[in-house]
Every structure is written in structure tokens, then in C-alpha cells.
């Protein structure tokens, strides 16, 4: 098994766990936030089914200063409001969101990067 295959398999395992955490985070946290009338309007735009789960995870995972910049931008309606979400989530919700978002992001970018590097011939022996 080549180095490329091993690294891609590692990224795929990370993506698989991110998919599992997507479902768990959606059922545990986002479902609760959707049912709450105070937070329903603060989950961001749902471009595709389930996109609000990623919006909520992103707002709980990235630094608060980044969230404030996104919320002050002209396209702020696309992002979840982190201030409201922090009021209505507990530590477990934030931890699940953090792990899910960064696992999804890192595994996605690593797979894209590995494919680009492989097409450039980095892994050819």
C-alpha cells in the first residue's frame, strides 16, 4: 500500500467519523435549537438540507472574534449567530460542535490536498 493510499485512507476514516458526528450533533444539539423559538431564526441560511448543522458547528468551533467579524459582514445572514447559540448550548454541545467541525474541515482539506499533490506527482516513486 502506497503512502498516498495510507494517507487518503486516514483522511477517509476521519471523514467517516465526521459523518457520524454530523448525525449525532444534529440530533443532540441542532434539533434542540430548531425547536426553541428564540434560536430558530439564528441558525443561518440552510442552503441544502442539514447545512444549518454545519453553520451551528462552525459558530461554536471557530474563535469568537472570527464569528463577530462574520456576523458584522454584509452576508451575515448566511452564518449562525454565535452569541445566541452560546446562550442556549451547554459544554457538551460546544464540545461536539468543535470536534465535528474541525474533523470535517481537516479531513476534507487533507483529502483535497492529497489528491492535488498526487496529481502533481509528489507521491510517484
Question: What can you see in these coordinates?
Answer:
With 125 residues, this protein is mainly alpha-helical. It has one domain. The chain is built from five helices and no strands. α1 (3-35) packs across α2 (51-61) and α1 (3-35) packs antiparallel against α5 (91-119). The protein is elongated. The two termini are 13 Å apart. The model has no long low-confidence stretch (mean pLDDT 92).
> Helices and strands, in N-to-C order?
HHHHH
Task: Compute the number of helices.
Answer: 5
Unreliable stretches, pLDDT < 50, 5 or more residues? none
Mean pLDDT: 92
> Share of helix among residues?
over 70%
Strand content: under 5%
- What is the radius of gyration? 17 Å
Question: Outline of this structure?
Answer:
By secondary structure, this protein is an all-alpha fold. The protein contains 5 helices and no strands.
Write the layout of secondary structure elements.
Elements: H1 3-35, H2 51-61, H3 64-72, H4 82-87, H5 91-119
Helix pairs in contact: 1-2, 1-5, 2-5
Features:
single chain; 125 residues; mainly alpha
